Amino acid sequence: MLPVSPSIVLPESELVVRFLRADGPGGQHVNRTESAVELRFDVLHSPSLPEDVRARLLARRDRRLTDEGVLVIQARRFRDQGRNREDARERLVEIVRGALVAPKKRVATKPTRASKQRRLDGKQQRAKLKQNRSRSWSPE
């Protein structure tokens, strides 16, 4: 069981863990051990996730999310397989926790009179600068 929040717990049966050979430092040992971890979690078909959390996770533009709705996390930060497995699990929890909170709705506001005036003043100043450039320039 992987606790995400008091109401959401992801069972181990929904997590698919695969081990692969990691690149990077480690000498000859790195060529023989599969210390990198690939954790897969099917967001689209998971019965553990509430519908609103699932929708927010699938709506994210995340390159770790496949077209089939599977979240793929690769952990190869450490040389130890166990630490990489824990790292992948922690990252999955953080991603799901990020989707728990609904984003605030933006309240439409109008620009103030002063901000409109500042914008127009800036445009006039820029226009004058460009006008002065064209008068002083000569091809010689």
Automatic annotation (TrEMBL):
Hydrolase as a keyword of this entry, yes or no, is: yes
Write the Enzyme Commission number(s) for this entry: 3.1.1.29
- Which keywords appear in this protein's UniProt record, sorted alphabetically? Hydrolase
User: Cross-referenced InterPro entries, in alphabetical order?
Assistant: Pep_chain_release_fac_I (IPR000352), Pep_chain_release_fac_I_sf (IPR045853)
Pfam families noted in UniProt: RF-1
EC main class here is hydrolase
Keyword Nucleotide-binding tagged: no
Q: Where would I find the Prokaryotic-type class I peptide chain release factors domain in this sequence?
A: 21-37
Tell me the GO molecular function terms. Answer: peptidyl-tRNA hydrolase activity
Q: Please indicate which superkingdom the organism of origin belongs to.
A: Bacteria
Q: Where is this region: Disordered?
A: 104-140
Comp. bias intervals (Basic residues): 104-117
Family note: Belongs to the prokaryotic/mitochondrial release factor family.
Protein name according to UniProt: Aminoacyl-tRNA hydrolase
Q: Which gene encodes it?
A: arfB
